[in-house]
Amino acid sequence: MTAIHVTDLVKHYGRIEALRGISFTVKEGEIFGLIGPNGAGKTTALRIVSTLLEITSGTVEVFGYNVKKDPDEVREKISYLPEEAGAYKNLSGKEYLNFMAQFYADGKDVREMVEKGISMSGLEERITDKVGTYSKGMTRKLLVARALMMEPPLAILDEPTSGLDPLIQQRFFSLIEEENRKNGATVLFSSHILSEVQKLCTKVAIIKEGRIIRVDDMETMQDTNYKKYRVALKEELKAEMFGLDGVSDFKIEDGEAAFIFSGDPNVMIRALADRRIRNLTIEEPSLEEIFVRITEGGGNE
């Protein structure tokens, strides 16, 4: 079954075109990432799917319900976590989870839901402290737990790891994977960090300036395998030393060759094996650099 079907979605804020006819489909049980830089249109798209924004044109359906015509039915199917969400500061973490569970339980066992939320939050003894005493990261952990404890058919998460340290981010990924595996939850989440999407998603859409420039399953996306290389040799650097297919943005600066390589890193390592290497650095390119590569390569809509 199709969980989300977005067709030719357009959203204007006055003269500003936030979304310019985007289309994508999320299958039930899929973990789908919407990735792009700040201002690309990610949050606008998620808010529309969550029934919180009016559509300028196009259609959005969630489990067969039209977000414009059937918003109440859509809301029964989703749990939405905004990027800048907050919790009631005068309540303890446990009281907050209990309040939200009673609000959304709809026949489910409130106590069981709260216990699940407490376990998911990982706040341990701090769960009984006032939310107002929490750090940003602790508050975010509480909110992620709130979004997932309800076992929604569709969890919509906007930059969910914002404010979380790497260790807690990994816990969040585990929670998402567990909900997906045990309860078949469909997940739509946004991020501007490519590594997050690579760790979690089964499918990803790249959005830039209100347009989707590529939609692919994660395995295909990872096969592109963009990496930034900086190489210093104990011999004279020449451009022809790095003339492999997949090399782009080549330049020599400060005595080092710098370039982006798309392909199997083992191919590059073998090509460098006969050189007298003084220093070699391989790192992830920025999201913008990847976008440039994909755009130049004619990404699909």
Can you tell me about this structure?
The mean pLDDT is 88. The longest helix is centred in the middle third of the chain and has 18 residues, at 166-183. The relative contact order is 0.14. Strands 6-7-8-3-9-10 form a 6-stranded mixed β-sheet, sandwiched between helices. A 4-stranded antiparallel β-sheet has the order 2-1-4-5. A 4-stranded antiparallel β-sheet has the order 12-13-11-14, with helices on one face. The chain has 2 domains: 2-222, P-loop containing nucleotide triphosphate hydrolases (Rossmann fold, 3-Layer(aba) Sandwich), CATH 3.40.50.300; 225-296, Alpha-Beta Plaits (2-Layer Sandwich). The chain starts with a strand and ends in a 5-residue tail after the last helix. Helix 3 (93-104) crosses helix 4 (110-121), helix 3 packs parallel to helix 5 and helix 4 packs antiparallel against helix 5. 34% of the residues lie in helices and 31% in strands. It is α/β, with parallel strands linked by helices and 301 residues long. It has helices at 42-49, 71-75, 93-104, 110-121, 136-149, 166-183, 194-200, 218-224, 265-272, 287-296; strands at 2-13, 16-27, 31-35, 57-62, 65-66, 78-81, 154-158, 186-191, 203-208, 211-217, 226-233, 247-253, 256-262, 277-283. Helix 6 (166-183) links the parallel strand 7 (154-158) and strand 8 (186-191). The chain is globular and about 70 Å long.
